[in-house]
Amino acid sequence: MIRINKKLLEEITDVNNERNIYVHPLALARDIFWQRLEYAFKYIEKYTNINDNILDFGGGSGVFARTLSTYFNEVSIIDLDTQDAVSIKKYFELDNLNIITEDINTFTSIEKFNVIVATDVLEHFKDLGQPLNFFNKFLLKDGFLLVTLPTENKLYEFGRLIINKSKPSDHYHTSEEVLDFFINNRFKLIEKKFLPRYIVPIPLFEVAILQFKGNSYE
């Protein structure tokens, strides 16, 4: 079970946080966002195993934490704002969840990861070189990068009107731009899909899994 009940999330997380679309009053909006995680998890089941070391990059909302912690032996989250993740960890007693409250540009560790998940995170980096540098340091060669990204196309803009949301000032890139950047920097695209899916896919988001081919000096 990936989805967390709206009422419960309202009790244990910050409902006023912009990222917390999972408590949006419109059921369709909530469904679209949960679908991103559901399809992302399908890729996790297909390409990874429970012994892999996984990092939820920018996962401070905590909404994916319960699912990841149930599947993997050990899970880490890194984000500047982890308050909601802390609340979810406490409520669901996720003892195998390690929460790191730190800037990715100053984070240091000898630990490396087999899998890094970034759900609707990378478009917020004006300089995509920052997350790329992080992945170069902490993602193992042949490890997987799993992303969800907004397409930012005309249909996506129309969707914002329906749910009464304006475009965040820090949405710098389309999904296509982000994927092209990483494909051109030693990542290989394995699979991708448009989401949500209601009989046919609707291109509001892309979920994609890429494999890291390692640094040029390796």
What is the CATH topology descriptor? Rossmann fold
Strand content: 25-35%
Mean pLDDT: 94
Strand order of the largest sheet: 3-2-1-4-5-7-6
Tell me what you see in this structure.
- The radius of gyration is 16 Å and the shape is globular.
- Helix content is 33%, strand content 27%.
- The protein has 218 residues and is of the alpha/beta class.
- It has a 7-stranded mixed β-sheet with strand order 3-2-1-4-5-7-6.
- The chain has one domain: Vaccinia Virus protein VP39 (Rossmann fold).
- The chain has helices spanning 6-12, 27-47, 65-71, 83-92, 129-138, 154-162, 175-183; strands at 54-57, 75-79, 97-101, 113-119, 139-150, 187-198, 200-212.
- 39% of the residues are buried.
- The longest helix has 21 residues, at 27-47.
- It has 7 helices and 7 strands; from the N terminus they run H-H-E-H-E-H-E-E-H-E-H-H-E-E.
